[in-house]
């Protein structure tokens, strides 16, 4: 039990890890675009966008895991849980079409 707790605490991702995750997600999304201009813009602006999003993110550290919440607009927010050096998206307006 102690070993599992120590593993969770050690692998609890930081806000910098979350920013890297966002950047990789943006780059992956831009590579899926058919238009080469959109691909290039996504690659160039992905780092900037992930930095802006991360700067607007509130991280709550629970020692064994963390939650990340970014308010994108009055009605949209991005929510994720970080544990074991991974991120699990709970709420993503881009995936649901911004509803």
Name some characteristics of this structure.
4 strands; alpha+beta; 4-stranded antiparallel sheet; 99 residues
Q: Indicate the percent of residues in helices.
A: 40-55%
Fraction in beta strands: 15-25%
Please give the order of strands in the largest beta sheet: 1-2-3-4
Task: Briefly note the structural class of the backbone.
Answer: alpha+beta
The backbone outline, from C-alpha atoms, is elongated
Unreliable residue stretches:
none
In N-to-C order, the SSE pattern is HHHEEEE
**How many β-strands, per DSSP?**
4
Distance between the termini: 41 Å
Q: What is the total domain count? A: 1
Alpha carbon gyration radius: 15 Å
Main beta sheet: 4 strands, antiparallel
Residue-averaged pLDDT: 86
**Contiguous helical run count:** 3
Please describe the topology of this protein.
Layout: H1 2-10, H2 15-31, H3 36-55, E1 57-61, E2 66-71, E3 77-83, E4 86-91
Antiparallel strand pairs: 1-2, 2-3, 3-4
Helix pairs in contact: 2-3
Notes on the structure:
The protein has 99 residues and is an alpha+beta fold. It has one domain (2-91). Helices cover 46% and strands 24% of the residues. It is built from 3 helices and 4 strands, in the order αααββββ. The chain has helices at 2-10, 15-31, 36-55; strands spanning 57-61, 66-71, 77-83, 86-91. A 4-stranded antiparallel beta sheet has the order 1-2-3-4. Helix 2 (15-31) runs antiparallel to helix 3. It is elongated and about 50 Å long. The termini are far apart. The model has no long low-confidence stretch (mean pLDDT 86).
